[in-house]
Amino acid sequence: MLDSVLRVTKTGIEDWTVTKEKTKERYEKGMARMRSGDYSGLVLGMYSRNFFPDGSGNHSVTRGLDNEKLGLEKENLDEFTEVAVKQALEG
Fold first, then answer.
1. Angle 8-12-16 from CA coordinates, rounded to 5°
2. In the prediction, which pLDDT does 63 show?
3. Given this model, what pLDDT does residue 50 score?
4. Residues 80-91: b if buried by 16+ CB within 10 A, e if exposed
5. What angle do CA 3, 89, 76 make, to 5 degrees?
6. Is 65:73 a contact under the CB 8 Å cutoff?
7. Per-residue confidence (pLDDT) for residue 91, from 0 to 100
8. For residues 5 and 65, what is the distance between their CA atoms, to the nearest angstrom?
9. How far apart are CA 21 and CA 47, in angstroms?
């Protein structure tokens, strides 16, 4: 995703401040927010699961997808990243 943002914004990694956080810690932080009633933690926690080392959160790897059977086309990540960047800049 970061590579897509860099392409869409025509920027380099040196133009950004990138921070790192261990996946498990990020997941636990999200779940703690949920337990305290802050449901924004759901997004934080569930998104973090995609990056667990065992791949358990990556459904396309663990179980596969049926996109072809459903007639779904492969999406262009940069196309949708461009939409998200535009929306973020416009507020």
1. 100
2. 87
3. 86
4. ebbeeeeeeeee
5. 40
6. no
7. 82
8. 25
9. 13
Give the contacts of 58 (CB within 8 A, at least 6 positions apart).
50
* 14 token code pair: 């040196």
- Kindly state the tokens that stand for 31: 């779940």
The reported pLDDT for the residue numbered 5 is: 97
Look up residue 23 and give its amino acid: T
Measure CA 27 to chain center: 13
* Full-model pTM: 0.69
pLDDT value of position 27: 94
Please choose, from the candidates 63, 65, 58, 61, the residue with its C-alpha nearest in 3D space to the C-alpha of residue 23: 58
CB 16 within 8 Å of CB 89? no
Q: Which residues of the chain have pLDDT under 70?
A: none
